[in-house]
Design brief:
The chain has 331 residues and is mostly beta strands. The protein has 1 helix and 25 strands.
């Protein structure tokens, strides 16, 4: 096991370093910018989309590989114990997406390298992007065999909203093509109903027997063009699945490519499944195009916007902890 530090590139927000965390089976390149997973190599294949320079990540609207905070996914408003907080609205001026205009994906994180792990730390000030509380977020990436273990921790000095995830874009056949033939399994009977802004309403809809049902493994492309009110508007899958969990750390998804399998385990209650439904023009690393449905995202999380309908939030001084594991194997 080894960790190698190198200079990645200059950027609009400062110098960005890279760290290569690798063992005999997996090589992982992580950036100090946004904790981005820039490369994820297994069996000789780089299985995550991304770019060659830091500014390309900053200019992209796709959040490639980044740690998302302090609140992932979408919020239309934020009310805690009857107090409303004026969030920044960085998505069409109507809602907040992935933490605002300058979320943690766009910040330089402090990185501490250990024998088989990287400990990344980021802070946000009280009132930043509209959120209450000075908050410190720590994420640890640990390689154990073919497992990438991601441990999340957060603490704030005021009551606040927290929802953390990693936004890697996977193509298990190696980036450059699409993922429509990948087979997906997601143990979930329900998805979050979303409004026209793609914000969960608090209502959960059954997905079994619909185009959104992955309780039996099927190719991602099999039903992606079928008409469904929670599928058609987004041009593909971009849905929050309420997981069927038998224990705290449980299987959230199993995705199978031609030769490589990714299993996602988490203690979080939900999984956002996204299938890259846009087609940006900027080429990715290696000069490869960003084709339609080029990758899938498996974002473990609490139910988005839930702070506004279930009243759960991070209390001042309390410590938020969660764990997600990306596990690779052969077909």
């Amino acid at each position: 096991m080894s960790v190698k530090k190198f200079f990645f590139s200059e950027s609009k927000v400062g110098a960005v370093d890279g760290y290569v965390l690798e063992n005999e089976q997996v090589s992982l390149t992580v950036l100090s910018l946004g904790g981005i997973i820039q490369k994820y190599i297994y069996r000789g294949k780089d299985i995550v989309c991304g770019f060659d320079t830091a500014d390309e990540y900053l200019e992209s609207t796709c959040y490639y590989g980044a740690l998302i905070g302090r609140y992932c996914n979408r919020l239309k408003e934020l009310t805690i114990e009857g107090v409303s907080y004026p969030l920044t609205m960085n998505e069409k001026g109507k809602n907040q997406l992935h933490g605002g205009f300058v979320g943690m994906d766009k910040k330089i994180w402090d990185v501490e390298a250990k024998d088989n792990a990287l400990v990344l730390t980021c802070t946000a000030k009280d009132g930043e992007e509209g959120f209450p509380g000075n908050i410190t977020v720590k994420v640890t990436y640990t390689l154990k065999g073919t497992d990438l273990v991601m441990d999340y921790e957060a603490v704030s000095d005021k009551d606040t909203a927290v929802n953390l995830t990693n936004h890697s874009y996977f193509n298990l056949d190696g980036i450059g093509g699409n993922i429509l033939n990948h087979k997906a399994y997601i143990p979930s009977w329900f998805i979050s109903e979303c409004d026209e802004l793609h914000i969960p309403t608090g209502k959960q809809l059954p997905c079994w027997g619909t185009a959104l049902d992955f309780n039996l493994p099927k190719p991602i492309g099999q039903d992606i063009k079928k008409d469904h009110p929670q599928l058609t508007p987004w041009g593909g899958y971009d849905n929050n699945y309420i997981l069927r969990k038998s224990e705290k750390l449980s299987l959230a998804a199993r995705i199978e490519g031609k030769e490589i399998v990714l299993e996602v385990l988490t203690d979080q209650p939900c999984l956002q499944f996204y299938t890259s439904n846009d087609t940006p023009k900027t080429p990715m690393k290696y000069g490869l195009p960003q084709v339609h449905h080029r990758a899938f995202c498996v974002e473990t999380q609490a139910e988005p916007n839930a702070v506004n309908f279930d009243g759960k939030y991070l209390k001042a001084g309390e410590v938020f902890n969660s764990r997600t594991i990306f596990r690779l194997s052969d077909v």
